[in-house]
Design brief:
Low-confidence stretches: none
Radius of gyration: 21 Å
Strand content: under 5%
Structural class: mainly alpha
Order of helices and strands: HHHHH
Distance between the termini: 12 Å
Length: 119
């Protein structure tokens, strides 16, 4: 592989790592991972998701039981999503995703237009 290309890729990686976007994402991720309330609500949502999945194995999706389980899952997810730490993480994640989408578009748009004929 071309040494110049390797150096440019390394420089891009370093620029991404020191960007404010990545710093914000990593900080938000740490806060989320260390938040006890988020852990509890995440566990609650997982339990409701598992319960809903089990219900769907027994009852049709339009049954009263399935609709109740689905509603409980919705409420658990809503409660988790309303935490400030989750909102902060989701916002930082969205910004990082946009950054990576832009990078991919810039780097690979030529190949996408040509139908992925990378040589």
């Amino acid at each position: 592989m071309n040494e110049e290309l390797i150096n440019k890729a390394y420089n891009l990686k370093e620029a991404i790592n020191v960007s404010l976007t990545m710093k914000n994402l990593l900080e938000a991720e740490q806060e989320l991972e260390n938040n006890d309330e988020a852990k509890i609500l995440s566990y609650k949502m997982d339990v409701e998701a598992s319960h809903y999945s089990d219900i769907l194995k027994i009852y049709p999706s339009d049954s009263k039981e399935a609709k109740e389980a689905q509603h409980k899952l919705y409420l658990a997810k809503k409660e988790l999503d309303e935490l400030e730490v989750v909102k902060k993480y989701n916002k930082a994640y969205k910004e990082a995703k946009l950054l990576f989408n832009d990078i991919n578009r810039i780097l690979f748009s030529k190949y996408m237009e040509e139908g992925c004929n990378i040589k």
